[in-house]
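Working notes for the structural subgroup meeting. M.R. asked for a predicted model of this chain before we commit to crystallization trials. I am recording the input and output together here so anyone reviewing the notebook later can reproduce the run.

Input as submitted:
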Amino acid sequence: MSQKNTKGKPKTAITPTREENYAEWYQQVVRAADMAENSPVRGCMVIKPWGMGLWENIQRGLDGMFKATGHKNAYFPLFIPLSFLEKEAEHVDGFAKECAVVTHHRLEVGPDGGLVPAGELEEPLVVRPTSETIIGDTFAKWVQSHRDLPLLINQWANVVRWELRTRLFLRTAEFLWQEGHTAHATSEEAVEETMQMLDVYADFAENWLAMPVIRGEKTEGERFPGAVETWCIEGMMQDRKALQAGTSHFLGQNFAKAQEIQFQDDEGNREFCWTTSWGVSTRLVGGAIMTHGDDDGMICPPMVAPAHIVVQPVLHKAESKEEVLAFCEKFIAELKNTVYGGRVIEVEFDTRDIRGGDKTWQWVKRGAPIRLEVGPRDVAEGSVFMARRDKGPKEKESVKVEDFVARAPEILQEIQDGLLAKAKAHRKEHTRVIDTEEEFYEFFKAPTTGDNVPVPMHGGFALAHFNGDPALEEKIKNDLAVTVRCIPIDGQGLCEDEGKPGTCPFTGEPSAKRVVWAKSY
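Returned structure, recorded in token form:
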């Protein structure tokens, strides 16, 4: 895919390469693709237009899926009274170390002329790490009768979790997300909602982000604080680590009892609601980068790409400039009447007066699915030179303009399908069924080079039995930084004995089924 330099080593747009240093490669892709940058506030990020465009398309796609399943959007306060969190002990314990707290309501000029906090609040306010408690307080007002149920609400918002070790998109102190919150009359309805939204997330991950995921339940040690059950989707990144890409929680009546969300049933009895919550975040942008990016930068799945097609007119000669621009504007207008993935095809018409090579590599690094180069000769032939981002940057083909306009949606879908197939093949290659403790530890142990330097990419997904002991899970986490990513739902084709009982390789005790073990983000 990349050029060769004089020493025979691949010349890439991104250094270091994925093989050399995957973590640094990721950071460099985010910058080179012009997606985000660090902000003056430690641990926070500025999302730039290309990165925000990708997130907006994720938001658009998911929002449509939420509304198709009966959910409505609302908005709730950024600040949560401390007493609200204290009502649910397990919940506050789970988030206490990540909370940012407001204790004063104004600034004043101090004795030395600097600004100092003043006006201490009667009750501290927590900057929302998640909204179960304040939404629960609101639900308690909205729900009175069984006729008010089910209550299906979603919120698009920002949240703050005061992380010390951050990475753009993957883990930041402030991030964008959506959080769904629902209330139901019965446990069965709430469980059905939990699983429905898990399936929505999996559908979106695979068909929009081209990111294959495994659906499953979290173990007790990985469960959301205060939940009865937590379900998740887990994707394998190119470095073979797992990324938790979305979660859906069955909260039972825990939060309903803490927030007094009650309803009168059809017999006049007062009952507590059964509630759920579910969410995904800008972490999905990081997941798309790590699933599809290469050593030349980002590769955007067409379904969420900020622009589907970039048109680069070649304007070296003044006498042909107007003709080339007019030719481009005509077929761009036709493309903008064409629909792909439920939206009009979006085109970037890049007429900037910069070197053609620099312009090309900017779009390669951003991962635009299709680039079209158009010069005077192409105009004369009624053609465009097409380059697809899923192929090498030097691989171009001349296509008649009318054929390209007619086939553009088909070509974009070919790219989308190819990215998903490649990601599935990668996951399959690095997923192993393991039945002994020795093989398990060897699988996750980082091999070393002759210089005793660990090789950056190793391991993958291990499908191994597990007796469910939290102490054993903690030991393996301490030994290898490996955790149970999920207890997979049956029927996903992960292995031949999927869902069948066996023996835990670590204890010799019975195991209900294989689970997915991996290192993770």
